[in-house]
Task: inverse folding
């Protein structure tokens, strides 16, 4: 069936309505309005442009204008019927479009949930992914951005970030979405510039929010793995007080190793740093001193500036730590033990939280 024939089907019966209105001056019946809406819905489902359909209604109006509509009152009555018909048809068309959009959004949301949680058959996910522009036969990486408030896909922030990426890279098998209030970007592993640009845009759009990037992995299961790595990187960054705009899970691989044996790290923190709890003021000021010292690359002058102390005061604190723990921060071997214990303490929230 040609498009012209389809268009004629969607205006079927409209000429009869015009003729009857011209003769009687009546308005459309409830049944006629319902029929026009139904035709509008079906036309939308068939993919016929609304502009074409409205144009055809106007053309039929011109072609079948009732000869009896010669007085101003009769003309007004016919025009009112035209308005009713076109309005009912457009209402049905728009309702079908809204329903299609909701169904598409629901399908997209279901796919995203399955993709990021791996709750469905991976082969089926890969098939559905092509509909949303992803080729999961390739390796992908996931970036996750967190801001001061949760976001969903209807919020301006994710829409702004998505427009920025589309404007920069076009259609490059990129998926931008939200999940649990965070912004998500899934991109091919060989297009690292996409994730970096996403990080830049998300950081700005979320007023300084932090972005974590998971490592690239192949297949649908690789997306899940990269997503989880990014989430873990965000969690580690929060626990360690890392304030970098972008953190990469590849740069934080040592930390999961430390936390894998919680009992061992608890024993290390207790045995190495436990004596600091006997200090006046508790362990926290001395622990902060070690953190600043190690973060400064063991440069006393820089650590002192970061702590707003004199170098002499910092040196005194380090000597005190040496006396209390038996580990000298200036000795390379002792330093490694102390730094590992400090990392464990930061991950565990010690001394504020029990080990």
Result:
């Amino acid at each position: 069936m040609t498009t012209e024939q389809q268009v004629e089907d969607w205006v079927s019966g409209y000429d009869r309505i015009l003729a009857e209105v011209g003769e009687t001056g009546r308005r459309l019946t409830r049944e006629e309005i319902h029929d026009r809406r139904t035709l509008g819905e079906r036309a939308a489902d068939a993919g016929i442009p609304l502009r074409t359909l409205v144009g055809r209604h106007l053309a039929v109006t011109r072609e079948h204008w009732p000869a009896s509509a010669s007085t101003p009152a009769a003309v007004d009555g016919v025009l009112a019927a035209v308005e009713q018909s076109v309005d009912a048809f457009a209402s049905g068309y728009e309702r079908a479009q809204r329903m299609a959009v909701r169904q598409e959004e629901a399908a997209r949301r279901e796919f995203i949930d399955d993709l990021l949680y791996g709750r469905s058959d991976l082969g089926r996910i890969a098939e559905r992914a092509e509909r949303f522009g992803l080729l999961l036969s390739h390796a992908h990486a996931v970036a996750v951005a967190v801001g001061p408030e949760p976001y969903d896909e209807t919020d301006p922030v994710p829409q702004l970030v998505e427009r920025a990426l589309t404007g920069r890279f076009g259609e490059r098998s990129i998926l931008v979405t939200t999940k649990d209030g965070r912004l998500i970007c899934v991109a091919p592993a060989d297009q690292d510039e996409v994730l970096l640009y996403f990080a830049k845009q998300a950081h700005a759009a979320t007023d300084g929010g932090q972005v974590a990037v998971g490592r690239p992995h192949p297949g649908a299961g690789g997306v899940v793995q990269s997503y989880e790595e990014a989430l873990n990187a965000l969690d580690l960054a929060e626990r360690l007080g890392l304030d970098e705009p972008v953190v990469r899970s590849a740069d934080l691989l040592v930390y999961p190793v430390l936390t894998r044996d919680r009992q061992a790290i608890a024993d290390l923190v207790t045995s190495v740093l436990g004596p600091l709890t006997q200090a006046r003021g508790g362990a926290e000021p001395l622990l902060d001193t070690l953190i600043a010292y190690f973060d400064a690359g063991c440069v006393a002058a820089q650590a002192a500036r970061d702590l707003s102390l004199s170098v002499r005061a910092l040196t005194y604190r380090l000597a005190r730590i040496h006396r209390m723990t038996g580990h000298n921060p200036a000795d390379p071997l002792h330093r490694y033990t102390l730094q590992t214990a400090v990392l464990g303490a930061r991950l565990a929230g010690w001394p504020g939280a029990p080990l």
